[in-house]
Design brief:
The chain is α/β, with parallel strands linked by helices and about 300 residues long. It contains ten helices and nine strands. The strands form three sheets. It has a five-stranded mixed sheet, with helices on both faces. Strands 1-2 form a two-stranded parallel ribbon. The longest helix is centred in the C-terminal third of the chain and has 27 residues. The radius of gyration is 20 Å and the shape is globular. The chain binds fe (ii) ion.
């Protein structure tokens, strides 16, 4: 099952979101156990997302996980949310040792496994691409979330409007394009703007990903995160990979967006490699970057 908090107005409100999680958790747990056809006694380990993310939401999840692990008398494992996106891509998306383009509301990173860690090779210097699409859609009066609406309108766009192409080394920046877009709202059609947003910003993402692949000699790309649901971005990543003779992997949309499966699977990997978290030590890490989680289940 999947239930998603939708802000009543404006952006996400952390406390409101955490209350939503607390009120949905019981039903979610019951449904998941029911769907899996197992009883609580058959659970052997409890994994939870320890970070990164919004503090109140992470703490709500951690509290539930602690309570559950103590009640069931099973070990607790803390998982990095970004690492979980990648491991889900390796488990369910067919990727083995990819360069990862991880694009979501809060994150825009190019990552690869190098010398024992998932290292960040490039990222946004300001706004994450999902957040950028939401902000543009809000300015244009298109509603939330922005990505799907932008994709729909972009399909009807005809002419490419000139937007800043802001690749900076291995990083990108999106505040410049966002400022320009706000000004262009008065003179261009929404269809053309959405089309131009996708072509320009996605090209920046693909360029940085390709450079990482060339640099590391990895001939495999994994696209994941909520923005990975965008069909144009998928097309562009597939085309770049094809031209390099590289493999392109992504997941079905329900596994690209945030989900419990990715946390559970990564928890199993971590547990299998001996990782455990004492409940008394299981504080959350709202700024936990992917390169700060030990990955003992992978060999170089
Ligand atoms: Fe995510």
């Amino acid at each position: 099952m999947r239930r998603v908090y939708k802000p009543s107005a404006g952006g996400i409100h952390p406390r409101e979101a955490s209350r939503y999680i607390a009120s949905s958790a019981g039903e979610a747990l019951k449904t998941c156990l029911g769907d899996a056809g197992i009883g609580p006694g058959e659970v052997s380990v409890v994994a939870f997302s320890r970070g990164p993310g919004l503090g109140p939401c992470l703490r709500t999840g951690a509290t539930l996980a602690r309570a559950l692990a103590s009640f069931l008398r099973v070990p607790l494992v803390g998982v990095n949310h970004g690492v979980a996106h990648i491991e889900a891509g390796r488990r369910y998306g067919g990727a083995v040792d990819p360069v990862v383009l991880y694009v979501s509301g809060g994150t825009t990173q190019v990552i690869a496994f190098v010398k024992g860690l998932y290292r960040i090779l490039g990222e946004t210097e300001d706004i994450a691409v999902g957040n950028f699409l939401d902000a543009f859609a809000r300015e244009a009066g298109l509603g939330f979330p922005g990505g799907p609406i932008v994709q729909e309108l972009a399909a009807k766009g005809r002419s490419l409007v000139d937007l800043p192409y802001t690749v900076k080394g291995m990083n990108i920046s999106l505040s410049g394009p966002l400022t320009r877009l706000k000004a262009l709202l008065k003179t261009c059609t929404l269809e053309d703007l959405c089309f131009s947003v996708q072509e320009t910003v996605f090209s920046m993402l693909v360029e940085v990903s390709e450079r990482a692949m060339a640099l590391l000699g990895k001939e495999e790309l994994l696209l994941t995160g909520g923005v990975a649901c965008n069909t144009r971005l998928r097309e562009m990543c597939a085309e770049m990979s094809r031209q390099r003779g590289a493999a392109f992997n992504t997941l079905e949309p329900r596994l690209c967006v945030d989900n419990g499966v990715m946390i559970a699977w990564t928890g199993l990997l971590a547990y299998g490699a001996g990782q455990r978290l004492e409940p008394s030590e299981s504080y959350v890490l709202p700024r936990w970057r992917v390169d700060k989680m030990d990955i003992p289940w992978r060999q170089e």
